[in-house]
Amino acid sequence: SSELTQDPAVSVALGQTVRITCQGDSLRTYYTTWYQQKPGQAPVLVFYGRNNRPSGIPDRFSGSSSGNTASLTITGAQAEDEADYFCNSRDSSGIHLVFGGGTKLTVL
Amino acid sequence: QVQLQESGPGLVKPSETLSLTCTVSGGSMSTYYWSWIRQSPGKGLEWIGYIFYSGTTNYNPSLKSRVTISVDTSRNQFSLKLTSVTAADTAVYYCARLMGSSSGGDFDYWGQGTLVTVSS
């Protein structure tokens, strides 16, 4: 099992706000990075660091962290946001990288 | 625009060595980390390891005994070797650039991925 825990599935109504979470002890110390992956495609970086969104990523995607939990919030979810979302950070040693198990987001 | 492209055999026999190469175009390999990540069919992402352009490596502890990542900046390539493969190593293998700008794994460019099947 991963050192980063994500809910397997989350759903949101079109246009509503959804929060996808990632839990792990290492998140008290290290930043969390978030990826979106659609079927048959490579993952895409959507949020990283303290408060960074890559060029081309809509500003409805935002990240936050509190204690051992990091969150990716989508404000006003769109149909095209339906995808798998993975978090990534350091493991408990702080040396190696680790991914969460992923959350499948369904937009209703 | 940086592009990454994986290449290598799509079928490897059990107990043999999986070898993949990632070719980087559209940018220099300098100052970045270069990584391999895999995804078993229908499963999540697994970080395999990364190499700095100068050659320093960092591997997933669960794979460390079987993994070697190397870099050839003159050819703008880096490579993965995974020894003694089993069916559990069947996966889509991605190469990716790690920015290293934050303490998380910020992979900003990815290859399209290549499916490697381990089967006799």
Structure characterization notes:
The complex is a heterodimer of chains A (108) and B (120). Chain A is mostly beta strands and 108 residues long. In chain A, 0% of the residues lie in helices and 44% in strands. In chain A, strands 1, 3, 4, 7, 8 and 9 form a 6-stranded mixed sheet that branches. Chain A has a 3-stranded antiparallel sheet with strand order 2-6-5, with no helix packed on it. In chain A, a hairpin with a 6-residue loop joins strand 3 and strand 4. The termini of chain A are far apart. Helix content of chain B is 0%, strand content 52%. Chain B is built from no helices and 11 strands. In chain B, the strands form 2 sheets. In chain B, strands 2, 4, 5, 6, 9, 10 and 11 form a 7-stranded mixed sheet that branches. In chain B, strands 1-3-8-7 form a 4-stranded antiparallel sheet, with no helix packed on it. The interface between A and B is medium-sized, with 29 and 24 residues.
Largest sheet of chain B: 7 strands, mixed
What general outline of chain A do the C-alpha atoms trace? globular
Mean pLDDT of chain B comes to 95
Shape call of chain B:
globular
Structural class of chain B: mainly beta
Biggest protein-protein contact in the assembly: A-B, 29 and 24 residues
Low-confidence stretches of chain A: none
Question: Roughly how many Å apart are the termini of chain A?
Answer: 30 Å
The overall strand count of chain B is 11
Strand content of chain B: over 45%
Structural class based on helices, strands and sheet pairing of chain A: mainly beta
